[in-house]
Amino acid sequence: MTLQEKISKAEINEKNSNWDDAILLYKEIVKESKTIQNLERLGWCLSRAEQYDNAIKCFMNIEKQEPKMAKWKYMIGYQYYCKKNWKDAVKYFEEALKIKPNYFIVKYRISYAYLQVAGEYKKLTKSEFWKALGHIKECHKLWENFNEDIKNREKHTYFDINFLHGKMLMDLPNHREEATLYFMKALKIKDDEICRYNLSKTYYLMGKYKEAKKYIPTINTYYVIELDAYIEAKLKNFNVAISKVNKLLEKRKKDYLYAFLAEIHLLIDENKKAFEFATKAIKMNYNNHKNHLVLAKIYYIYKFRQILGNFFEKSY
Predict the structure, then answer these.
(1) pTM higher than 0.90
(2) In the chain, what's the furthest Cα-to-Cα distance?
(3) What residues contact residue 21 under an 8 Å CB cut-off, 6+ apart?
């Protein structure tokens, strides 16, 4: 088989996602012709086959030959990104941006990686969170200066950028309105159910329950059904909420769901059922202080109603 025949066959395997076969051929090709193009194809196939460490070696080999090319820094960083080695990913993304400051995809990926480094615990106190926010804001500025051809080519990345920006802001009470705008922008690019879920959840957190109901997706996953049940309860559709939670409890017996049921039954004056579900929640997870709080609320309200009832009996 000639070199060109091997390249053609490797490209067919690559097109059909036959990564292992493509890798074997590209390794042979690189032995015969160690061009940057051939090394890049080998590195890409190694990456798609999730052989990230081998892909790193391959792209590092290329980077030594072209140290001033931002693409190779990015590709090395991307392998670490896929491995969820966020700090090393950030290191190489930063190097890529030093060479090419307006590298659109890298600006998005470094934002995501910085967020992972920041974590959820006290993230607003972490410099990485604010670096992530800075990069994501710059992505919007870059987008505004793109022509229509580039926008069409990069629209999937811009969907991710808007979605990520919305996710960053939805946990910040003073920025939730802004978060909904970014989710909306993302949905104009692509109608995505996970994006709709996060938009619905943001509206729920804002107390805009009708809007939350409007955007709730139809996917039959537990977290969507949970959110839908919470929304229905806030809309005072208590029986609908109870039905949804009961369906969840058939497969997911969680203490917080029992506690939620307890609160709904308390709202509709079904004190006995409220007590039963609250005690179930405590038995399932004694260490969850929220379960004890629900039971305390039931005792308090029940006692208050009892006192109020006695008061009216004596008054009349």
Answers:
(1) no
(2) 104
(3) 13
